[in-house]
Amino acid sequence: MLVGTAKECSSVGEAGEKYKQLVEDVIMELSEAVSNNEGIAFQDGIKERLASYTEVVKDFPCAVKEFEWRNEYFYELGKSCSKHNSLLEECSEKGFIDFL
Q1: pTM value?
Q2: Are 100 and 15 contacting, i.e. CB atoms less than 8 angstroms apart?
Q3: Is the pLDDT of residue 71 over 80?
Q4: Could you give the angle at which helices 20-38 and 82-93 cross, rounded to 10 degrees?
Q5: Who contacts 47 (Cβ-Cβ below 8 Å, separation ≥6)?
Q6: CA distance 14 to 23
Q7: Do residues 69 and 21 touch, judged by C-beta distance below 8 A?
Q8: DSSP states of 15-78 as a string?
Q9: Per-residue pLDDT for 53 more than 90?
Q10: Do residues 84 and 25 make contact, with C-beta atoms less than 8 angstroms apart?
Q11: What pLDDT score was predicted for residue 42?
Q12: What is the pLDDT of residues 5-47, one digit of tens each?
């Protein structure tokens, strides 16, 4: 999970608890960017559904991996994903990723 990696959390659950608002902000940013870019609409409750996933995988370690499958699309959307991209840059600056 990107938020947890950037904020140096030991697990997805810790990230979901300590950075709940940031997780929700990133979810909304990404869903809005996809909606605008692809011309689709998500059902109501996307923020709640995706945020609740942090509870399902709460014991998983945080990591940013498979960039081209999980994050590259959003990274390439640029300014419309500024929070997401700032978190990726934070991970890069801390040496957690080496592909930016």
Answers
A1: 0.92
A2: no
A3: yes
A4: 120
A5: 24, 27, 28, 31
A6: 11
A7: no
A8: HHHHTHHHHHHHHHHHHHHHHHHHT--PPTTHHHHHHHHHHHTTTSPP----HHHHTHHHHHTG
A9: no
A10: no
A11: 93
A12: 999 999 999 999 999 999 999 999 999 999 999 999 999 999 9
Per DSSP, the three-state class of 47 is helix
Q: Which residues contact 12 (CB under 8 A, 6 or more apart)?
A: 1, 4, 54, 57, 58, 59, 60, 61, 62
Distance between CA atoms of residues 27 and 41, nearest Å: 14
What is the identity of the amino acid at 33?
Answer: A
3-class secondary-structure state, position 95: coil
Residues 27 and 81 sit within 8 Å (Cβ to Cβ):
no
51/5 Cα distance (integer angstroms): 16
Number of H helices, E strands in the chain: 7, 0
Residue written as token pair 């979810």: 27
**For residue 51, what pLDDT is reported?**
84
Cβ(34)–Cβ(45) below 8 Å: no
Tokens representing 19 are: 């950075």
